[in-house]
Amino acid sequence: MVDLNHNALLADLAVSAVERTRLNFYCSLFSAIGSLSVFASYTVWNKEDFFSFRIFCVLLAAVSALGFTVSTWLLRQRFQTGGRSAEGQDCLLKELYVGDPSDPPEKKITLFEYLKQLSRHRNFLWFVCMNLVQVFHCHFNSNFFPLFLEHLLSDTISISTGSFLLGFSYIAPHLNNMYFLSLCEKYGVYGVVRWLFILKLALSVIMLLAGPDQTYLLCIFIASNRVFTEGTCKLLNLVVTDLVDEDFVLNRRKQAASALMFGMVALVTKPGQTLAPLIGTWLLCVYTGYDIFQRDAMNNISTEPQMDPSRVLTATLRQGCFYLLVFIPITCAFLQLFTWSHFTLHGKRLLAVKSYRQTQPQNILPQDVKTI
């Protein structure tokens, strides 16, 4: 809920693409600073004694709550100060406004009517189809990243290196997003996202042709695949803000439905989060016969007849993990390039929507004023 309203603020605080990109840049910067807590947790981690780690988690939660409270208080103070300065002007407009008694009062739309409006919003439909695949890919990487490290790189890298890669994968997307945002200012979000899909497809094909024995290339691909995928997810928040603007213009709203738009995007793409581990484990089981769910997590005892440990890490299992690693991004990239090519909210259309949105009042419709 906090993330949903935080993303909705991005659309409410600014309308121009430059200002939104700048806000997203600072958001990524401080998110990267906050992600350093992942490395800090390793200094107090002890699998035999969790007391220090628990204290660290409590302190981290307290600092986060304090920072969130202070930042929201400062934000409210800023808006209240701006509201007082404009209060006199609003009162004057109300006195001068001549309303038509025959005009009916504003009709509040129902949830069904709002869903019907979204069903006619073509760019929204194409976007959620693309974002559904993106959410699937993001959570696939999150769930299978440790599995790939174990079965593809465990023989060539140390445990500390694997832990570093895992921790770095939480910080790198924020740093990478800062660079992508600078590209968005030059080439637009649509073009940057499109080239990221092409890059994902190209890297996956190169990795497929190189094979699983190229250790350094495999290590770079596993890390970059997760970083680029997470970075693309963060860039897509800017696209949702553009959809908020288009929805405002198409349906002639008196106020932008930012939270509703972000909420609907999150709701429609939620199945991707659930399907990612299910489809991934099913594909791995079909190809290799290795089912990670057929194990007792507490006692590490298999519920099936015991197998020789040397047979678990066979060439078939390693090859299956490799094919899963490269074919999932290839499939996702093809689907996303297809859906993204039908997304038309860019170029002249986006400029027209932005221009109209910026010329309209944010909370009231255009009103007639007495000639003085």
- The tally of beta strands, per DSSP, is 2
**Ranges with pLDDT <50 over ≥5 residues?**
96-103, 296-303, 363-372
Rg over C-alpha atoms, rounded to the nearest angstrom: 25 Å
Number of helices: 13
The biggest beta sheet is recorded as: 2 strands, antiparallel
The CATH topology label is: Growth Hormone, Chain: A
Widest sheet: strand ordering: 1-2
| Average pLDDT, all residues | 78
Structure description:
This protein has one domain: MFS general substrate transporter like domains (Growth Hormone, Chain: A). The protein is 76% helix and 1% strand. It has a two-stranded antiparallel sheet with strand order 1-2. The protein is built from 13 helices and 2 strands. It is an all-alpha fold. Strand 1 and strand 2 form a beta hairpin. Helix 8 packs antiparallel against helix 12. It is globular. The two termini are 48 Å apart.
Highlighted features:
transmembrane; 1% strand; 13 helices; membrane; Growth Hormone, Chain: A; MFS_trans_sf; two-stranded antiparallel ribbon; mainly alpha; transmembrane helix; 372 residues
Furnish the topology, listing elements before pairings.
Layout: H1 2-13, H2 17-34, H3 37-44, H4 51-96, H5 111-119, H6 122-152, H7 159-187, H8 189-210, H9 215-250, H10 258-288, E1 295-296, E2 301-302, H11 309-312, H12 315-340, H13 348-359
Antiparallel strand pairs: 1-2
Helix pairs in contact: 1-9, 1-10, 2-7, 6-9, 6-10, 6-12, 7-8, 7-9, 8-9, 8-12, 9-10, 9-13, 10-12
